[in-house]
Every structure is written in C-alpha cells, then in structure tokens.
Amino acid sequence: MHKRMAVAAVAALVACGGGSSWTDPTTGSFNAQDSAEVMGMVSGAFSAALQRQAGPQTPAQPGAALTETVSVTQSCAVSGSVSVNGSMDSSCSPSGACGFSGTLNLALASCSNGNGYVGDGGLSITASGSTSSTAISLRETIQGGITVTHDGTTIGTCGINVTVDLSSDGVTETVHLNGTICRQPVVQ
C-alpha cells in the first residue's frame, strides 16, 4: 500500500458517512455538536495511531502479495488511549497497479479530545480499493459504538455506521459519504 492511501483513509474517516444492515446501538440524546465532537475525537485518535505505526508498504516485487499487520496503542490528545489492530492485504500487478483490502479494529479507552468529551468503545473499519501511479480508489465502512461523556455526564452510546467512497485521479479528489452518526444522517 502507498503512504497516501493511509492518508486518504484518515481523511475519509474525518469526513464520515454510512453502511448497510446494521443494528444501531445509539442511546441517549446527541445533538449535532455532540456528533461532530465524537467524530473529531475518533478521527484524531485514529490519525494519531496510524502516524505512530510504520507507513504502509507495497509488495517489493510486482505480482507479489503482502500482508501488513497493524498493532499500535497510542495516547489520545488529552487523556486515555486508542488501539488499532488488524491487517491489510495488498498485491500488485506487473504493471504497477495495486489492490488492497483488510479490517482494522479501533478501540477507545477513556479517550478525551480536550473539549470535555470522553469516549469508550470500538469501531470496525473495513477498507478495500486500488492504486496506480496516478489514481486511488477507496471504499471504507466504519461501524460500532462509542459511549460518550461530556464534562463528566454520560450522554449515551453513539452508533457510527459510515460508508466512504473516495477516488482520486491525481488531480481531482471525490468523496461520497453516506450513513449515520449518533442516529443523525450524514449524506453527501
């Protein structure tokens, strides 16, 4: 995998959108600000964890395959921790075009973003796509639930069910989002 693929995945997570058959675990009352804070906390934690992990690799030989294991725990911005575990498989054709797929699990443990919000829980992130020397195509599905407190008061569990489709031809980047965050629809 290319390093820009990890950057694109983080950018897609920051943008966020929704998935398919899934039971939403959302409880409590989340407003738009709460939902934005939850996604900011999750994307910031995910980004920090991936930056700590060594950059993704592509197979050394065209036509070869590579499985990259991800296992990292990182402190959150203010307090708590985030863990990212899983693996990504990639393979490249002799022409240099590469395909990838895999699943990462993100777990927050008392992770705080600095705005009084603290999250505990986990998300499953599945990704697949392809890259060439000039283009990238990525589909990412993010699902799970984060229990959220704000200034010490429990708001509830925020269900996240997001599908992100990202493509870039090296000049123009397109992102399509669909799904729900804390039962609030996010569509683009």
Largest sheet: 8 strands, antiparallel
List how many beta strands DSSP finds.
Answer: 8
Residue share in helix: 10-25%
Widest beta sheet: strand line-up:
1-2-3-4-5-6-7-8
| Strand-pairing-aware structural class | alpha+beta
Strand portion: over 45%
N-end to C-end Cα span = 27 Å
> Which whole number gives the mean pLDDT?
83
Question: SSE order in H/E notation?
Answer: HHEEEEEEEE
In DSSP terms (H or I, runs of 4 or more residues), the helix count works out at: 2
Shape: globular
Using the CA coordinates, give the radius of gyration: 17 Å
* Poorly predicted parts: 1-20
Count of the domains: 1
Brief sketch in words of this structure:
With 188 residues, this protein is of the alpha+beta class.
Note the topology.
Blueprint: H1 3-15, H2 32-52, E1 65-75, E2 79-92, E3 98-112, E4 117-131, E5 136-150, E6 153-168, E7 173-181, E8 184-187
Antiparallel strand pairs: 1-2, 2-3, 3-4, 4-5, 5-6, 6-7, 7-8
